[in-house]
Write a structure and sequence with these properties.
By secondary structure, the chain is of the alpha/beta class. The protein contains 35 helices and 20 strands. The protein has a 5-stranded parallel sheet, covered by helices on one side. A 4-stranded antiparallel sheet has the order 1-8-3-6. The radius of gyration is 42 Å and the shape is elongated. The chain starts with a helix and ends with a helix.
């Protein structure tokens, strides 16, 4: 390059362009050209300057060991003048400069540049003017930064408090989501329950991003001005937080409290990255301004209006599903506290950890931290923290419960033994059921001469109706239908090895309950129209039909699909089991923290004290049970669990109906069908009470009246609910589905009162009836029959108690004053009176 071209290039492309042509010409005369290969140190930190370097082509970068001044690390592009200040001020080089690519440099050696400085004072003067301009710019920038700092200081987040503690899959996933969110500039919605330190997660995202040196501020949406001036600023006036923030991060905390007026502009900001400053009324709206700030949203739940505008959505899992992390969290909070107070670290016993893991922590991490700190203070310097120190860790679900397995170890041993229920089922029930069916077919056909018919109607029905409030669905654990279903399943797999079909859960949940309802309706009509209770072979046909259903579906689907979704007797048992005073559950904390195999659910080999099993036959996990409907008390989970997590609790009867219960339409339909069945069983008495003169020997009249009797009680209760809505015109009552379960004690009590007549009046004749079945005379054998007055008293007492329990249960479910529920209470009393009239009298 010739000298005139060199002078032009220096004037146009470098900071030396402020010098006169004479000086530039003098510099051009002493320039030497050099080509430096890539990855070569041009100058070294802490050394005297050797020359003035002008980068013509290529790229350089600087590195410094001075970590307190990151501005020293920078890159250089063509036109950069290097070592000028060091040569003029005779200073050491502050950093090392390395070639990134092959570089073409103009070099003025130091021994030639210094005479030029002495010869031309203009060089030093020009440099001084440049320094003055730079100083003015720095002063202006410093004033701006001070003003910016004052504006942002009340909202500034200085650092993340802590990382994500724990090794559970939830903790690992949360860390991965934080890393992904920190890698780009998209907006993030962080939502979850209170106490989960969501604002700390927002800080982790910011300080893990490339813009970590930019400020991060947190603004509580509840205190924002409805005009948005503090966030967006005013046109021609005071800047807003977004303008001061620049490329920093804005955390909108508690977005659910954002004023409605600000929802559209915030949505615009998230969608387009622009905002419009606030104007006074009558002023023209200014042009939207672009914002380079990153938006992080913290909330307790997602907001549908802005959810579609969000780049990343992070759901922070509650502590109750991260029980495996509780030990690490406790150790971490303990270390923080003892380090701050300078006290010795106490040992935390395994029992204390188990106690903490059994608690659900509604306040999540914040509650756990407070609990740990309070425990250390209460321990008063003790070397060990025991479970008694953590006494507040008592979950609401565990209140008013007594674990019978702990109170009675012999009960645990029996329920874990081969006797329950396998030896009972396959050693007795399977054989006895075959004999029972055979006797029903070949024996006498009336109840007064067939002991099996007597057992079925006078013993089985009242006994298990009486047992429901105590042991729930325990009949299902020894049910012969299920036993023959399992026998069929094993035999078919032996003869035809194959993979049984998995359960069509979605369809079964939707239609299985209505199948049970329809089948029970047909059973009721069959029983009434063909007198099943006094016709042995028809009763046998009923038993065989239900058994056939269990066998067919057991040959098709794995485990006990029939028992869970389709069996009509199982549906009734599951409904009445909700009233039971016992329950089978598991400690959620132990299951979440200690269990990795889920043997109680899936089955598996022996592990520790856990036995080898095939898993829950109804595919129910004991830690996830919310009511007794889907537990048959087979105790498979108790046998399989190696961690002693399974509990068999004594509890307030029916407590699930006003705590964790989920109403289902088909269950309510079955409930009212069973209510109508009480009146259907007493059809002659009902006719007499109502003064009807219908001929029940005519099939169609009998069928029509039977259907009407099954339907009318449900219509009556629905009418009472209609009055309830009118009665509470200024208050919305609970839904009909929820309140309908309040009638459950009355339905159970009415059915029990009906069968008490058979149980107390005919059950005691079992010995002479047995002899009559065998063709022998048993007239001299003893009988035990209650007096009719005693039967009437017990029936009446059962109905009265059922009405009272119905009123009490309705109050617990509704959680409203008695006056508000008076129509339903009066309906329950009216039903009780009608049952008294047709059953007791």
């Amino acid at each position: 390059m010739t000298s005139p071209e060199t002078i032009t290039w220096l004037k146009e492309r470098t900071s030396l362009g402020i010098l006169s042509p004479e000086v530039l010409n003098a510099i051009a005369q002493v320039i030497e050209e050099q080509v430096i290969p890539a990855e070569t140190d041009l100058v070294s930190e802490g050394t005297p300057p050797e020359a003035l370097y002008i980068l013509v082509e290529g790229q350089l970068e600087s590195n410094s060991t001075n970590q307190t001044n990151p501005a020293l690390a920078c890159g250089f592009l063509p036109g950069a003048v290097i070592e000028l200040k060091e040569l003029l001020l005779d200073q050491l080089t502050p950093f090392t400069i390395t070639t990134v690519t092959e570089c073409h440099l103009w070099v003025v050696p130091g021994d030639k540049f210094r005479p030029l400085v002495n010869q031309y004072p203009e060089i030093a003067q020009a440099f001084s003017r440049q320094l003055a301009q730079e100083l003015a710019q720095v002063t202006s920038a410093l004033g701006y930064e001070q003003e910016r700092s004052v504006a942002l200081r009340p909202y500034l987040v200085t650092k993340a408090q802590r990382g994500i503690v724990g090794t559970s899959r939830y903790a690992v996933k949360l860390r991965e989501q934080i890393r992904e969110a920190g890698a780009d500039r998209k907006s993030v919605d962080i939502f979850g329950e209170p106490g989960l330190e969501k604002d700390n997660i927002a800080a982790l995202i910011h300080f893990g991003s490339p813009k970590r040196r930019e400020p991060i501020i947190k603004v509580n949406c509840g205190i924002l001005q409805t005009s948005g001036a503090d966030l967006f600023g005013r046109a021609g006036g005071k800047p807003g937080l977004l303008e001061w923030l620049g490329e920093g991060t804005l955390v909108l905390n508690n977005i659910q409290e954002l004023p409605e007026e600000l929802l559209p502009p915030v949505t615009q900001l998230l969608k387009t990255g622009t905002y419009t400053p606030v104007t006074r009324s009558g002023e023209a709206a200014p042009e939207p301004r672009a914002s380079k700030a990153r938006i992080l949203i913290v909330s307790e739940k997602t907001q549908p209006t802005i959810e579609r505008c969000i780049g990343h959505i992070i759901k922070v899992p509650p502590l109750r599903v991260r029980k495996a992390d509780i030990q690490a969290q406790v150790e971490y909070y303990t270390s923080l506290y003892i380090r701050a107070r300078g006290v010795p670290k106490p040992r935390i016993t395994p029992e204390a950890f188990r106690r903490l893991q059994s608690y659900d922590f509604p306040g999540n991490l914040k509650e756990l931290k407070n609990l740990v700190e309070r425990a250390i203070v209460q321990a008063e310097g003790a070397n060990e923290l025991t479970e008694e120190i953590f006494w507040p860790a008592e979950t609401k679900k565990k209140r008013f419960r007594v674990n019978l397995l702990n109170s009675y170890p012999s009960l645990r041993r029996f329920l874990r033994s081969p006797w329950w229920p396998d030896r009972i089922n396959y050693g007795f029930t399977a054989t006895a059921f075959a004999i029972i069916v055979a006797v029903l077919f070949i024996g006498p056909q009336t109840r007064d001469r067939n002991f099996v018919l007597n057992l079925f109607w006078a013993w089985w029905w009242p006994f298990f109706l009486f047992l429901f409030p105590f042991l729930g669905r325990i009949w299902c654990s020894v049910c012969p239908f299920m036993i023959y279903g399992e026998i069929t399943q094993k035999l078919s797999l032996w003869l035809w090895p194959r993979q049984l079909k998995r359960w069509p859960r979605q369809q079964a949940e939707k239609w299985g309950g209505w199948f049970m309802f329809g089948l029970f309706t047909l059973i009721f009509l069959w029983e009434e129209l063909w007198h099943l209770e006094n016709t042995a072979y028809l009763s046998a046909c009923l038993l065989l039909l239900i058994t056939a259903g269990a066998m067919i579906f057991s040959a098709i689907f794995e485990r006990r699909f029939w028992c869970r979704y389709l069996c009509p007797i199982g549906g009734m048992n599951g409904l009445f089991a909700k009233l039971s005073m016992t329950e089978l559950r598991a400690q959620q904390g132990i299951c979440s923290a200690s269990c990795t195999t889920y043997q109680c659910y899936k089955g598996g080999p022996q592990k520790g004290e856990g036995m080898e099993t095939n898993g829950c036959p109804l595919y129910s996990h004991p830690a996830q049970l919310e009511d007794n409907r889907d537990c048959v008390l087979c105790m498979t989970c108790l046998k399989a669990c190696p961690h002693r997590s399974v509990e068999f609790n004594l509890r307030p009867p029916g407590i699930e109906l006003w705590t964790t219960h989920v109403p289902r339409t088909y269950e309510v339909a079955l409930l009212f069908l069973l209510l109508g069945g009480i009146y259907l069983h007493r059809l002659p008495e009902l006719q007499s009470w109502l003064g009807l003169q219908l001929d029940l020997t005519q099939f169609w009249q009998h069928l029509g009246l039977s259907l009407l009797v099954l339907i009318i009680p449900a219509i009556f209760t629905f009418g009472a609910y209609g009055l309830l809505q009118v009665f509470n015109f200024n208050r919305k009552p609970r839904s009909f589905l929820e309140l309908a379960y309040g009638y459950l004690p009355l339905v159970l009590g009415g059915n029990l009162a009906h069968y008490l007549r058979l149980g107390l009046g005919e059950g005691g004749r079992i010995l002479p009836v047995t002899f009559a079945t065998l063709g022998l005379s048993g007239e001299q054998l003893p009988i035990l029959v209650a007096h009719s007055a005693v039967i009437a008293f017990l029936q009446g007492a059962t109905i009265i108690l059922s009405v009272l329990m119905t009123i009490l249960l309705t109050q617990k479910i509704a959680k409203q004053p008695v006056r508000s529920l008076m129509p339903q209470h009066l309906a329950a009393i009216a039903l009780g009176v009608s049952m008294w009239a047709i059953i007791v009298f």
